[in-house]
Structure formats: C-alpha cells, structure tokens
Amino acid sequence: MRGLLGIGAFGVAVAMLPLFVTSGYALNAIVMTLYAAALGQAWNILGGFGGQFSFGHAVFFGSGAYAMAVLQVKLGWNAWAALPAALAAGGAVGALVGALSFRYGLRGSYFALVTLAFAEVFRILANTFEFTGAGVGMIVPLKETVADLQPASRAGYLWLILALVLSGLLVSWWLKRSRYGAWLQAVRDDEESAAALGVNAFRVKLAAIIVSGGLMAAGGAFYVQYLHYIDPHIAYGPAVSVEALLGPIIGGMGTVWGPLLGAGALHLLGEATRGLMGDAPGINLVIYGIVLILMVTFLPSGIVGLLRRRLANA
Amino acid sequence: MRRARGSAVLELSILFPSVLNGLTTGAVYALIALGLTLIYGVLHIINFAHGAALMVALYGVYFLHQRLGIDPYLALPIMVPAMFAFGYGLQRFVIGAASHGKDENILLVTLGLAVVLENLALFWFRSDTRTIDTPYTLSTVNILGALISTPKVVAFAGALVAAAVLLLVVGKTDLGRAIRAIAKERQGARLVGIDVDHVFAMSFGIGLACLGAAACFLLPAYYVNPNVGNGFVLIAFTIVVLGGMGSFAGALLGGFLIGVVESVGGLWLGESLGQIGIFLIFIAVLLFRPQGLFGARA
Fold this sequence. Notes:
By secondary structure, chain A is an all-alpha fold. Chain A has helices at 2-15, 17-20, 24-49, 58-73, 79-103, 108-128, 154-177, 179-189, 191-196, 201-227, 232-236, 238-251, 258-277, 283-298, 302-313; strands at residues 138-139, 229-230. Chain A has one domain (2-237). Chain A has 15 helices and 2 strands. In chain B, strands 1-2 form a two-stranded antiparallel ribbon. The longest helix of chain B is centred in the N-terminal third of the chain and has 42 residues, at 2-43. Chain B is globular, with a radius of gyration of 20 Å. At the A-B interface, helix 5, helix 6, helix 12 and helix 14 of A face helix 3, helix 4, helix 9, helix 10 and helix 11 of B.
C-alpha cells in the first residue's frame, strides 16, 4: 500500500506543477521528461521485468502514432475514438512480434535483432504507401480543443502525459506484487526453471509484449497529438527505440520508479550539456551513450540500485 | 504465350546487369559481414556498433582523400591497420571492461558505442552527405554487354582478396588457431595458456580491419554521412544470420545472395520497397532456421 501512496503523492504533486510553473519552456521540459518516462516504462515491462531486450520498440511507438494520425486525417475519426484504436494497434503488433519470436524461442541478442528488423520493415512500409503519407509524413491539423484531444494549454498536455505515466507506474507496481508479475520475473531469471515449475513462459512473455506494445503505442499517440506531425523516420527509426531503453537502464531495470528516475536524470543531463556546449546537434546523445556505457560498466542496477545500497548502508 | 516469352527475353537484358550489380555490392556486404561473423564466432557477441565503425572508417577514407589527397585504394594500408588498432582498443578497454561476463551488458555497451560514434560524427561533421570525386568514379566496365561501374568491379575483386586474406589468417596462423580454439572452448583455451583477453581484442580488431578495407572499396562509388552505417548494419546481420553465425563460407555466400536479392528486388518493387525483401528474409531465417543456411549449430 505504501507503493500506491507514493504513486498517488507523485501524481498530485506533478498535477499541481502548472500552478507554480508558468514558463512555457519549463512546462515543455516537464512534458518531454514525462513522455520519455512513459516510453521507458513501456520498455521496462518487457525488458526490465521480463528480461527480453528489445532494440526495436519503435515498431510499437510508430504503429500507435500512425494509427492515431491515419484514423484522424484519412478516415475522419475523432481523436478520443482513435486513441483506444492506437493502443490496440500497438498491442496487436506486440502480439504479432511476440507470437512469432517467442514461439520460435528467440532470446537475448536474437530477440533484440528481430525487433530491430521488424521496426525496419514497418519503416519501409510506412515510407512506401500513400496511405501513410509515404516519405513526406503526415500532419495532424491543429485544433486546440479538448474534444479533439488537443488541449489548448501546455498544462493540459502535462495532465495527459501524467495520466499515461501514472498508468505505467500502476502497471509496474502491480507487476511487483501480483502472481503474474512473479511469473514474468521468474521467466526473466531462469526460463527453464520457471517452466519446470509449471509457468507457461510463452504466454507470460506474450502478455508482457502486448502490454508493453500497447503502452508504447500510447506514447506514439501522445507524440502525434502534441507535435502534430509524424514521418517514417520519427515513427520507426532507431532513435525512439534507444530513447525507450535508456531511461530504465539508467534508472534501474525491473523497478517501479527506475524509468521515471532515469528519464529525469537524462533530461537534467541534457539541459546541463545544452547550457555548457550550446545547442549543437548530436551532443546530447553522445553524452547519453557515454552514460549508458558507464552505467552498464559500473552501476548495472541503475540509480534505484544505488539509492537502495545507500539506504542499506546508512 | 509468345508475348510472355518476348517479355522474358526483354527482362533478361535488364536482369543480367542487375544480377551483376547485385554481386558486386554483395562482395562488399560479404566483407562487412565477415568482420561481424568473426566477432560473433569468437566472442559470442553481436556487435551493434559494427555499422557505426564502418561509418568511422568511411570518414577516415574521406578525410584522407580531401585533406591529404590520398586515393581511396591507396588508403588501404593506412585504414586497415588504423581500424584494427581502433577495434583492439575498443574491445580491450571498453567492451571487455564493461561486460562482467554478461552477454546483455555487451549488447548494451555496443549499442551505446554506436550511439556515441554516430552522434560524435553528427556533432563534428553535421548531417551533410559527402562524396568524393575520383577520375574513375563515373567510368564503367563492359561485362558481356552489361555496363558496371569501375569502382564496383574493383570493390568486387578487392573484397574477394580481403576475404581470402582473412580466411588464411584464421586458417593457417597461430593467431587463427588460438581464435578457433577460443571459439570452440573458452575455458580450455585459457587452460592451455592462450591469452584470452588478447585474442578477443585481436578478433575484434580484425573484424573492424575488414571494415577499413570495405570503406576503401565503398567510398569511390558511395557516400558518407553520420547515419550511413545504419543501412549496412541490418544487412550485415542478415547475411551473418543467413550464412550461420560464425561461418565464413556462409557469410561470403550470404553476402552475394543478399546483394542480388536487393538489386533484383529493387528492379521489381522500386528502390524503397526493394529493401524489404532483405528484412523479410532476415526475420524468416531468425525464426525458422536460426542456425542459418550453412550453420550446423542447432
């Protein structure tokens, strides 16, 4: 229950931020940090709790983003109706990728490779067909009404993405204490032993990739509503896949708060480099990559692991 | 029927140059894949930084030509040792140190390296696509009526020679014996006195040296920008998986096969959709035959 209280307190505190923070720049920074945290939480379900490292989570992100854009622009759906469809699209792609790769027992590097290849196939498809705007991409018209899931203020977007982050926290919290979560972590730690104890590893992993894909697609849907534009490279390119796995690895894989802490730390780091080195292209990611290598080398359990050790020693 | 036969003849006149083109590209793919498969065979890691390392090598060839006026083919004796040293250092001081013996760590560290290298290039050189101009860039060779660009023919021959040298090194030298011993039985190799960390680093160095050679053959007919490696890395993975992880003969044949599939696929489906064939082959092989077409390991 303490976990739930913490999540509730975090939600209330962040929801009240727009009362104190009025600068558009700062609000945007908070929104983008929460957005990165949401992507990290989605990855963390499969990668952190389930131990299946995906290098191609963009495949779910892009499918959510494109479902959102195509349904609204080409088929005239209302955004509120398109949102659950986008989530379902991410879950369905998750089911497809998961059913194929887990059925044939792909693990470790092989699983990472196959996710990367799926993202690439979807990128080429989106780049080819008129239906998705091909290489030009799609613009979602600016409407700025809540009825179109486009709040007129940054605060509105903050609440939207906060709702997604809170759902991510709740799912992670549930994984920590539910029977299903125990199965998933058992499969991560030792699949053969878990199977010997009667856990159906295939179904457990399949469920994880579907939930992970659905949440990632929600992140893609948010991206489209917030920035009003999507193209094949943004949707299915490697940048999103890397962004999704950086936060949890730096914050702490398989933990409830890790992705959020990691996203926060990375964002602060990004702001600091921008202050020091100016707005040069690429420099942020150089630093992120170095931090990733250093974390894997010296702090494999992430920020959460570091905090735990400190608390235990104190 | 008669009309169908007529169009088949017509298609053959397009198909033949397309297949030849695919074979020349495939030779360079094979060279890139040979480096990757060597690293996999010995270290049992998938080097996600392979594409980024190729990009580094391409920039090396580019600047040697732009600043010092060195012809790309004459840059070979500079680029091959330079990339070898780069690879040796990376494995010895970065990847090896970070691994703690866990495969997931290596996966993430090589991914991190790729991110760092690509974005350093973006930071220094911006995202401009650069090409070089040589006297032979636009010249062609007539092979049985098909016009193939000279740099591609040279690349084909060069890649085959480089592959032969690599096979000799692995097959006939003491280093090669140590590499094969470690690939088979790591603990046993250590017990008989092989310096495993050194051989790991040597293998990684040789793997990247292949990229140094590939870059010299590629650049006269290609371009370089910070993301150029991405296009190659998945293709190289496909070839390695197709040929069987760790198999040299498989990587060579796989390279030619993929080169032809890409070239002919592009002819039928267009430039953009043509590449999809490669990734579908990749996914299908990973799922249904992960030991590859020529690999024996189940």
